[in-house]
Amino acid sequence: MSKTAVLLFILLSATAVTVPAAESEATVKARVDKLLSQMTLDEKIGQLAQVGGLAFLPDAPKPEEAIRKGQAGSILWVSDAARINKLQKMAMEETRLKIPLIFGLDVIHGYRTIFPMPLAMAASWDMGMIERVQAVAAREARASGISWTFAPMVDIARDPRWGRLVEGAGEDPYLGAAVARAQVRGFQGTDVSSPDRMLACAKHFAGYGAADGGRDYDSAYIPEEQMWNVYLPPFQAAREAGVATFMAAYMDLNDVPATGNRFLLQDVLRKAWKFDGFVVSDAFSVRDLTTHGFARDAKDAAFRAFTAGVNMDMASGVYQAHLAALVKEGKVPTATIDAAVRPILAAKFRLGLFEHPYVDEARAQRMVGAAEHRKAAREAAQRSAVLLRNEGGALPLAKDPAKTIAVIGPLGDAKRDLLTMWSGFDLDPSKTVTIVEGIRGKGARVEFAQGVQIAKTYSSMFDQMVGGPQPKAWTPEQADAEFRKAVELANRADVVVLAMGELALMSAELASQSSLEFPGRQRELMEAVAATSNPVVLVMLNGRPLNLVWASRHIPAILEVWHPGTEGGNAVADLLFGDANPGGKLPVSWPRDAGQIPIYYAHNLTHQPETAAGFQSRYWDQPSKPLYPFGHGLSYSKFAVSNLRLAAEAVKLGGTLEVMADVENTSSRDGDEVVQLYIHQKAGKASRPVRQLKGFERVALKAGEKKTVWFTLGKAELSYWSGQDRAWIEETESFDLWVGTDSDARLHAGFRVVP
Ligand code: BGC
Fold this sequence. Notes:
Blueprint: H1 3-15, H2 25-38, H3 41-47, E1 49-52, H4 63-68, E2 74-76, H5 81-94, E3 102-105, H6 118-123, H7 127-143, E4 148-149, H8 173-188, E5 201-205, H9 224-231, H10 233-240, E6 245-248, E7 252-253, E8 256-257, H11 262-272, E9 278-280, H12 298-308, E10 313-314, H13 318-328, H14 334-351, H15 361-367, H16 371-384, E11 386-390, E12 404-408, H17 435-440, E13 445-449, H18 461-466, H19 476-492, E14 495-501, H20 522-530, E15 536-541, H21 551-554, E16 557-560, H22 568-576, E17 639-646, E18 650-652, E19 657-665, E20 671-681, E21 692-701, E22 706-713, H23 715-718, E23 720-722, E24 727-729, E25 734-740, E26 747-754
Parallel strand pairs: 1-2, 1-10, 2-3, 3-4, 5-6, 6-9, 12-13, 12-14, 14-15, 15-16, 18-26
Antiparallel strand pairs: 7-8, 11-16, 17-19, 19-22, 20-21, 20-25, 23-24, 25-26
The protein binds beta-D-glucopyranose (BGC).
Beta-D-glucopyranose (BGC) binds near residues 76, 150, 203, 283 and 509.
């Protein structure tokens, strides 16, 4: 089929479904009121229960049973259209009020067509692309009956040992907020009743990324100032973009579990942000309030989570078991049950589920993995890649069919590891294009040697569930033979592409690591291959920064492609041969090793910064700077940023300041540069970070082309949360401003905020 035909086909398939007209809010309210007035207490409590389609716990309710008894408002972990229709039919035909179910799933970077992992998409700094891609994810998932995604995950993370870094947008609240908005727009569009859109869920509210030691689920201690200035902004951005739901996090925040945390769920979410959607717990997190040593028993857990503001209990069955008794005992007023049910029913009306509870299974089949979706995945992977190093223009490679390219490393021909754990419990990785396949697709002569095996030291529950069959571990003799084979191949080839990093299951949930070293014997193999006289390129597939200190001195080109998704191999080949030009930028500071953690660019100067003479705050056994700064990323093109100008030297409190700079592609190759703006408030009621990102734009520039980039600084950019005032404040102070291409940007100006 031609490209146009495919597009037409998709459009027609989309319009073949009758699109219900978006309900007006007044109609939604009237319908909710009417339905609620007909519901018994048990039916209401049923709406507050989300039941798992996979049985993680032996005593977990079975979805069929729960649905028939009216004890399920939503189902999760079911992804197949036929099963969804079957379960929905039970709700629609076997229950008294015929209230449809919402099916929820973690469609965090694609449903069947898998896009690069979310951190990688943040590395594109391309908000338009992120929105488009999540719209494709929504289209595929909704076609299969999933109308609610547990995404975007907007947790700020400054510790790469934490496995869930991979799911978010990295260390920075400004970039994180922009990515959160783009994702919400992509998933929800302007009308969630459309057959191509779904409800989004901002998670994990809040502070999950600050887990002690980067250990998943561990406690987070976050002072109020950091909470408001760093961890909450992406959630607030999601809220402002109209996100339909929030998910409460697992861990203790300042000694109070997020699932029972009234500060988060009441003071911030409902009072300060006036959120009127609904909150779901994380899986089993209501029941687990007892595990924390917070709730006395399951009934107390139901009471604490519910009264804190969690509308829906994900999978733990605790609301179902105890809420009715709590109402009868007068501990929970019926009015609060009604208030909790309302936004859930409203969401079902807005989704159009009462009119269109079922999906067309044939359409779902056609929709998933459509050619246009794969095209979007390829583009997303190209745009997410970050060229960390390119000495002497080692990349791009010349296309020369006479030359042999050796692909070496454990990820060179891997399929599953181009995806992440969240790519689905029932995913078929066979559709994934490997790096070897991608390079071969360019007509190149490719030979592959795995060289080393990598494995997790301890395997988690998820490894068994989503990892698929594990390869048999090599004997020590086999391992040596494979290692030698790889080095021999490197010697024989004309160019070596090392494909190294981490297995997909080394990051995401239950996948924290204490070390940032390359797992297994990869570093040893890297050294052996680099010792050959052939040009070597390192392609990194990983969910977190790894120790690249040695490689950054000895391997001329390093291309970070993360876990790049279904079309990863094709995108990598495009990038290696210059059919695509890398333009991504790091959404995290890249530490030298784990000893530097936490390291983030927006730190305070504090007493005796490293820039001062004499006493200095630093480690004395290695440089204090990260190996690569936040915002870093090279291109095959060359760019110059110049002519920084401010519309004024002073801006009135509450006013806006225009900032402009020119960016020029000084090379003969088309490419993209991300122009970044940072500020520093020089004095005030609080010490402010040395730099804070407050503007960016990814600009496409033809060879030799020059453009002007405009930024606007206003109240939002110039204010911060003051712990002393317990409020957002903007102060009449002096500021530094820099514009450039990473967080070390040099082009400088100053301005003042005046009364
Ligand atoms: C995760 C959530 C996820 C939920 C449902 C939990 O274990 O923490 O991020 O949305 O499961 O799959």
